[in-house]
Amino acid sequence: xxxxxxxxxxxxxxxxxxxxxxxxxxxxxxxxxxxxxxxxxxxxxxxxxxxxxxxxxxxxxxxxxxxxxxxxxxxxxxxxxxxxxxxxxxxxxxxxxxxxxxxxxx
Amino acid sequence: xxxxxxxxxxxxxxxxxxxxxxxxxxxxxxxxxxxxxxxxxxxxxxxxxxxxxxxxxxxxxxxxxxxxxxxxxxxxxxxxxxxxxxxxxxxxxxxxxxxxxxxxxx
DNA sequence: TATATATGCAACTTTTCGGTTGCGCAAATA
DNA sequence: TATTTGCGCAACCGAAAAGTTGCATATATA
Lengths: 106, 106
Known about the structure:
2 copies of one chain form a homodimer.
Chain A: H1 5-8, H2 12-23, H3 28-32, H4 39-51, E1 55-60, E2 63-68, H5 73-105
Antiparallel strand pairs in A: 1-2
The structure holds a DNA duplex.
C-alpha cells in the first residue's frame, strides 16, 4: 500500500488532477466536475496524491481545498536528470556530426 | 493493454532495469542476475519497456542485447516542465522576498 | 548429431488498482 | 431544530498487473 511519486503520476486521471490543481487550489467536488467519474473515485485519487505528499489540504468550513506541492515533482525531475544528460550528449554528437559533414562540403 | 511511459516507469523493478541499461546494453539473463526474481519476470518487464519504446533490441547470435532509448524520457521531462516553472518561480519569489527584507534593513 | 544455453510465449495464480455503492460525520442553511 | 451539503471511510467488484511454471525455438558447443 506504500506508493511513491512515480506510481502517483502513473494514472492519467491523477496527472489531470495534478495539472488542474497546479493552476489553483480546488475542492474534491470542484475537481470531480472535470471528470466523468464519481466524486468518490476522484476523492480516492486525491487521497493517494495526499499520501504521496503531492497535495496539501486546507480546511475551510465544510470544504477542503487541495493545493499542489510542486516541489514533490523535483523527485521525478532528479531521476530524469541522469537521462537528460544522455540525450543532451547525443545532441552534442549530432552537432559534431553536422559540423563534420559541413567541413567536408568545403 | 496500452501502456504509456508513465506506467512504464511506475514499477521500481522497471526503473532499476532502465538505470542498469542506461550504462550499457544488456541481455535478459545478465539483467536478471541483478534482481531477486526469475528471468521470466524480468523478461516480462523488458517486454513492457520494449513495447513502450523505452528499449531497443539487437540480436547477436542467441543473445539479445537491450539498449536504452533515452529520448523516450523526454516525454516525462516535458510533462514535468510545467511544474519546474512553478518551483522556479517560487525560488524567484524567495529571491524577491530576501531582497525585500534586505532593503528594509537598510 | 546430441546436448546445453538463451530467449520468447502462453497458461495460471495472486495481488493490486480503479471504480461504485453505501454509510457516517461535520458544517452550512432553511 | 431539521435538512441539505461536502467530505472521508469501508466494503465490495471486475479488470489489470506482476509473478511463477512449463514449453517451444533458435543458436552455440561437445
